[in-house]
Design goal:
- The chain is α+β, with helices and mostly antiparallel strands.
- Helices cover 33% and strands 12% of the residues.
- The protein is built from 8 helices and 6 strands; from the N terminus they run ααααααααββββββ.
- It has helices at residues 2-18, 37-43, 45-48, 69-83, 97-118, 128-139, 169-186, 207-212, and strands at 217-219, 225-227, 247-255, 264-269, 281-287, 293-302.
- The strands form 3 sheets. Strands 1-2 form a two-stranded antiparallel ribbon. A two-stranded antiparallel ribbon has the order 3-6.
- It starts with a helix and ends with a strand.
- Residues 1-29 have low confidence and may be disordered.
């Protein structure tokens, strides 16, 4: 119970921190606009005010709210054009270098402060895959938790953007349910060592061999069976290798490359007839031409559903 309470407290602390956004002090933009009016009146308003909006810019309609992305973008554009001496145009009256520098100095700090505030780092919560990986890493489990958790909102097709990762009561409950499942799997239920089972399976002893030997499969004189795999039916399912309970497994596959002067790579995976079930690939083994070779594959865990 103490362990569960501690995990709950740590989890809620992380969630609370994840919803806190680092805030800079508000940028000092009060009064920055009036200090620019004289410059605008002398060099800009003829083309960008009083009904004129060349290039889509109407200065007398331009909002001072730099928190608004559209307004901020227009102010940045205005700053860049004046700084590059593109505005006013070359065939219009030009401010001297000192006046231009004063104009830019008055607008630079509000724009810089606004940019820093808008780009503050969001301390976000873990998305469901990160949460699954974190719990499994901490407790040494290998549970599939994603399906237990609500799907994460996406921003620009990414599911790990802090601004998009909300938190509801449903999230809290499901995340706690996932943590409980991990604790249940991590806590030993018995002091007895698990029984070690040895399962030996041969393709030539399966019921599929009765149908496919002589057509898609071939039994060699040494008792080994050759599967000419083309990616279709018959598949490589080995029924006698079926496992009945979750646990850690070591798979040893013995074979060799037949009628090939190059090594052959085989995949080791799982299959199921349950609707919607996954068909994971656990790893790969390689066999060289010549003598039979055993190849070991260690599986951290197989989950039975």
């Amino acid at each position: 119970m103490a362990t569960r309470f501690l995990l709950t407290a740590l989890y809620l602390t992380c969630i609370w921190l994840g919803q806190t956004q680092a805030k800079e002090p508000s940028y000092a933009q009060d009064g920055f606009r009036p200090s620019l009016d004289r410059f605008f009146a002398s060099y800009c308003n003829d083309c960008h005010a009083a009904g004129q909006a060349e290039g889509g810019l109407a200065i007398d309609q331009l909002s001072d709210d730099l928190d608004d992305p559209a307004s901020f973008a227009k102010w940045v554009r205005l700053f860049d054009r004046v700084q590059a001496s593109e505005m006013p145009p070359a065939d219009y009256d030009q401010p001297d270098s000192e006046l231009r520098a004063q104009f830019l100095d008055r607008i630079r700090k509000p724009l810089t402060d606004a940019h820093r505030t808008r780009n503050a780092t969001v301390l976000r919560r873990l998305n469901r895959r990160e949460y699954q990986n974190t719990l499994n890493d901490v407790f040494g489990t290998e549970l599939e938790l994603e399906s237990m958790l609500p799907e994460d909102a996406r921003s620009h097709e990414f599911d790990n953007v802090g601004d998009a990762l909300g938190l509801s009561m449903v999230h809290l409950q499901r995340y706690m349910d996932a943590a409980t499942a991990v604790l249940d799997a991590a806590i030993v239920k018995t002091a007895d060592a698990p029984k070690v089972d040895h399962v030996v399976a041969w393709y030539k002893d399966t019921r599929e061999a009765e149908s496919h030997v002589g057509t898609a499969w071939k039994v060699l004189d040494d008792g080994f069976l050759v599967r000419f795999e083309g990616g279709g039916y018959p598949s490589g399912m080995l029924r006698d290798a079926n496992v009945q309970r979750a646990g850690r497994y070591r798979i040893r596959v013995t074979g060799y490359a037949y009628q090939s002067d190059k090594p052959i790579v085989c995949s080791i995976g799982g299959t199921s007839f349950a609707p919607g079930s996954e068909k994971p690939i656990y790893g790969y083994v390689q066999f060289s031409p010549g003598e039979r070779q055993p190849s070991n594959l260690m599986l951290g865990s197989i989950e039975i559903t």
